[in-house]
Amino acid sequence: MQDLALYRKKRIKAGNVVAVLFLISCFLSHDVNAQKQTVATKPLAPVDSMMVKQLFFSAIREKTIENTKHAAEMFERILQTDPSNDASMFELANIKKSHNDYIGAQPLLEKAVVINPNNEWYWVALADSYEKSNNINKLENVFNQLIRISPEKPDYYFDKANAYLILKRYDDALKVYDQLEAITGINDDILASRQKIYLKQGKVDQAAAEIEKAIDNNPGQMRYYLLLAEIYNSNGLADKALKVLLQAEKLDSNNGMVHLALADIYRDKKDNDASFNQLVLAFSNPDIRIDQKVRIISGYFPKFPETSAKSSALELSRVLTVAHPADAKAYALYGDMLLQNTKLKEAKAAYKKSIELNNQVYAVHEQLVRIELSENDMEATIKDGENALSLFPNQGWMNYMVGVAWAQKKQYKKALGYVTNATSLELQDKDLLSLSFSLLGDCYHSLNDNKSSDAAYEKALSYNPDNAYTLNNYAYYLSLRGEALDKAAQMSARSNELQPNTPSFEDTYAWVLFKQKKYADAKVWMEKALAHDKENSSGKYEHYGDILFYLGNTDAAVANWKKAKSYGDQSPVLERKINEKKYIE
What we know:
This protein has helices at 2-29, 46-64, 68-81, 86-98, 102-115, 120-132, 139-149, 154-166, 170-184, 188-200, 204-217, 222-234, 238-251, 256-268, 272-283, 290-298, 307-323, 328-340, 344-357, 362-374, 378-391, 396-408, 412-425, 430-446, 450-463, 468-481, 485-498, 503-515, 519-532, 538-550, 554-566, 572-580. It is mainly alpha-helical. The termini are far apart.
């Protein structure tokens, strides 16, 4: 039924205005006093005749302004006065159809075509009504009448054949195509329709013969080879399909669609190398739409993280940029594949090229800035991030990342502005909100605003109670102030449960325990931190020395303070500890 609607919609859409004008013309020429052969009527008085005309035009006006209820009432009044008024029947039927009342429209249209059997629009509307109400058996006569009225219109033949197809009257449909071919000559639509029927009948050889005939008549038309190969391949005749495609490749070695079809055949035959080589040839052809190529590459995604899948997708995306050097989408996809293969430098270059060609795709900007931030390139993060925000100011993640970069440069007030924006722009993303409020806590702490810092950390934990970094930082800053140490200990212990063997977290827990005067426990955790620390952090050795001092081992304490100094800590307090051989707050 969908095929039937396709042809009819094209005609109705193109002919709506013509149809209305035609109906008005018919109405004006209609003798309302004429005796209809099939409808018993009384002759209308002149007054009634004038009333009918006025009502008709008033109804048309109401319908035009979409007051269909009032228009329908007017058409019904006309039919009460003049039961043979076919134009009013048609209009009333169309109003019913617009309300999906196809059953109600049918008797009106059936009567209209009896009264005026040569009106093409009546028959078209009746066909639509039968189709929508699934009265397919009644369509045959409708299309016979339409062909009688307009024998030169191919659409009516296709509609009739499609009706037969729905009814599984395949041989009758084939006869209609024979009629149509006699009128128009052979064309692709007729070929495709015939082979569709043959395949439904299981006659693969006849379906193929139709296409082979087309190849004989047009040996340079690649679409016929592709169609024939598809018929063979979809019916389990892969070897025949391959033979056809290889023949096509010899005739036109630059045809990308032939290479894509060959790639499918070789893939089904498990010859992955041959399939990939055909894909490369197809991707090198700029005539194949980039969107089709992108879909093919995306087919590799479920196979990640297989190395072969990644490398294949990477090479195809590289070829994509060569075939489509002016398309930003090609470079964006290439950047994604480079990123998948951890080629960060090359990925950045691809993303920058994509932005240069089209800066209106936010996702590309975000990928670029994420890489720069991951590489600790704060200057680039700020530059490219602020450029992105000039185009997309309402992006929460971009505001957050630029805020991170400014915070890393110790420009805390600038960082606050961007991160505060992030919290106001994104109200649903709990991960972003937790990270943003956590960063606000860090910035406020650095600006000595402890009240705002604590409030921000609490807010961060309300969105994600298991944000390990927030738990660690909040606990550490509380310990530095010697406040809420029990709470700090609980948060620090939890952060170590979430991310065990993290030296900075272990250092924090040791320091909280130190502040609680639990020196023996603090020593255990600090030694864990030092064992896991690969960077020889001066701060951890200083803390270890502080703990050892309170455990009564002054010599070991001084030795660790000196080690902290050798690793870069030059603070006056550390110098005093070494010189005076005692802990100094």
